[in-house]
Each structure stands twice: as structure tokens, then as C-alpha cells.
């Protein structure tokens, strides 16, 4: 039943976003006749948290695979975060899901807790004397920037490449990375076409929820 609820929630979230997804929609799709289907995960926020867990792992795994022979930790950070920016441009429901994930208590806390050790590994050498716990507040800062950039749709005047460049520049400066060090990384990342990769990440997340991407995206 939990798998059926997760599959049904995936379809509704992708079509309606988080705010537009109701327990009735999910119940009807999952074939649940009594009560709210979300109680299997505590509530609707609990269902989103399950997706955030899956997405978090999938994004870093995918970004690592895209690096080829490079072992540059700055490139890993740039590619992973740029991938998120590509994902939110796939659809408005996905944009709303990601913005919500960076807003709700449980999902945002999960992101912070899992990002801090990664940030320490990536940027620790650029902040002399900083401890791992210091990166919690730095992550609060970059998470706020991430949320703001995600919430702003791309336009002809503000295309995706420009968004990624501005976004990464803001984040690298917060972590006190020298400009001469981060500029080549941003140049490389901005030239990557990650749209197809973003679609694959979403498809794989849904598949892992127990149903193929094509099945989830078909009409009810």
C-alpha cells in the first residue's frame, strides 16, 4: 500500500504540484477507499520528504557520473546544483515541488543535514579554521539563494545559462572560493546541456517509487 500511495502521489505531484495535490486525488488513483492515503507517511509533507530523500541521492549520483575523469569537488557541486536548476525548468509543478522542499520544515531540514558534510568536504579547504558545524549556517545562506533562483522562471532576458552563472557565482563567493578558481568551473557547467539528464533523474526517481515513468505520466 505504501508503494501504491507513493506511485499515485508521484503522478499527482508531477501534474498538480504540491499545493494542488489533494488526498482525494491520490486516494482515487491508488484505489484507497477510506481515510487519507497520506497517513501511511504521516501526512502529505511526509510523502514529499520520501521523494526528497530519493531525489537527493539520485542527483549527486548522477552528477558524479557526469564528471568523467575530473575529480574537482567544485565541479561536482556546480553540476549537481545546475542539475536542480534544469529540473525545475521542466515544468511548473516540478518548480513548485522543489521550492516547497526548500521551504517545509522536515524537507528543508533533511536537505541541510545531508548537505553540511558534503559542503565540508568540498569547501573546507577554502575556509581556514572552519569546522564542519560552521557549514550549517553557510548552507542556510546558499539554500535561501537556491530557493530564490528556483522560484524565478527563466525568460528570454534571463535564460537558463545566465541563471546558472549568476547562481553559482553567488554560492562560490559565500564559500570564499577565489574567482580565478571558480570561473572555469562555471564556464564548463554553463555549457553543459543537462535537460535530458534532468528528465532521466525524475524518471528514475519515479521508477524507484514502484512504477515506470511512462505509466506515471499517462492519463488517469
Give a short synopsis of this structure:
This protein has helices at residues 2-16, 23-30, 44-66, 73-88, 92-101, 105-123, 135-151, 160-174, 179-190, 195-208, 213-217. The chain has 220 residues and is mostly helical.
What would you note in describing this structure?
- With 220 residues, this protein is mainly α.
- Helix content is 70%, strand content 0%.
- It contains eleven helices and no strands.
- Helix 4 (73-88) crosses helix 10 (195-208).
- The longest helix is centred in the first third of the chain and has 23 residues, at 44-66.
- Residues 212-220 have low confidence and may be disordered.
- Helical percentage: over 70%
What would you call the quaternary organization? single chain
The percentage of residues in β strands lies in under 5%
Q: Which geometry do the CA atoms define?
A: globular
Mean pLDDT: 89
What is the helix/strand order? HHHHHHHHHHH
How are the elements arranged and paired?
Layout: H1 2-16, H2 23-30, H3 44-66, H4 73-88, H5 92-101, H6 105-123, H7 135-151, H8 160-174, H9 179-190, H10 195-208, H11 213-217
